[in-house]
Write a structure and sequence with these properties.
Layout: H1 6-10, E1 32-34, H2 36-41, E2 47-52, H3 62-75, E3 80-84, H4 88-100, E4 103-109, H5 115-123, E5 127-131, H6 135-148, E6 152-153, H7 159-165, H8 167-176, E7 182-186, H9 191-207, E8 213-219, H10 224-227, H11 249-258, E9 262-266, H12 268-282, H13 292-302, E10 312-317, H14 325-331, H15 342-350
This protein binds ligand F0G.
Amino acid sequence: MAYSGLLSRYGHLLNLPPHTRTISLLEGDTPLIPADYLSRQLGGGFELFIKFEGLNPTGSFKDRGMTAAVSEAFGRNATTVICASTGNTAASAAAYAARAGMKSIVLIPQGKVAAGKLAGAAAYGARVIQIEGSFDDALTMVIEITNKHPICLVNSINPYRIEGQKTGAFEICDAIESAPDWLCLPVGNAGNISAYWAGFKQYNEIKSTGLPQVLGVQAAGAAPLVIGHAVENPETVATAIRIGKPARGEQALQAAEESNGKIIAATDTQIVDMQKLLARLEGIWVEPASAAGLAGLAIEIENGNLNPKGKRVVAICTGHGLKDPDIVIKDMVKPQVVMPNLSALEEVILG
Ligand code: F0G
């Protein structure tokens, strides 16, 4: 049967109200790509898979939660959605709202959103508002305004976002017929780690798929869950997870604890190095934040805190590299300019 989207495949396992009317872009069903070269680079002897969430319709995992949240809002005739965002949620909310014929308003931290995300939000017709402040300031504002006015909040505080994002865990279990031993993923506002843990627990109850240990990874300059308190001025090259006060921080810590996993921090250098390694060894280009889970895995293996031998590890790569081209272009060797004839080309290539 042709694939018809997440709510169609997994809706019966999601806690969505009966009024929900499906708005879908055929999100989900993303590949679980074996990463043998990277596994070898990290010492080998274990199976490593990349769940490439950048292949969702708007280029990030946010589409999983957004199909659920917008479908619920659409079903009760809401006319406008709003979110605070470091970029990906904004693009996703705007796309699903467009498809539902609804308006979208997105609040982003000024100057800190990658080009591909801002362009996406604009292309899908969102009203984009820049806040002279951080993501955390923007989130406080959207909570306040939705408490006062009939506008639907589609940040991951919205429980239907979490319901939709549980499907990532279901897909992994369906693909490898059990939960992996370890799940590594980046942590920003902490919705995704909470959703994955809820999804694995649910699948384990109904299908005895087992549970993974969860390794959540924050950027060192925005690591409130590692240092134990909110970060006033978070800073990282991984702008998607530049968040100092995660809304679902408690749940993330609980997921790490219950799963016998942990939440650690990776430096910007470690994150960007992993982004490059993944692209060059495996042909998978992700945005910086999306490499954080793998960067954390490398750190834990290197420090002898995690022995992956004989294990199955899945890393969630949350967004596509095309979202943030500037970071690569900035460091790129400038392409050579050659006259348009064969001998000029031969000289350059063959020396
Ligand atoms: N990776 C990417 C590419 C993201 O965009 C985000 C979050 C995360 C990881 C972290 O996920 O927040 O559920 O812990 N981006 C949000 C946004 C904050 O506004 O797009 P989380």
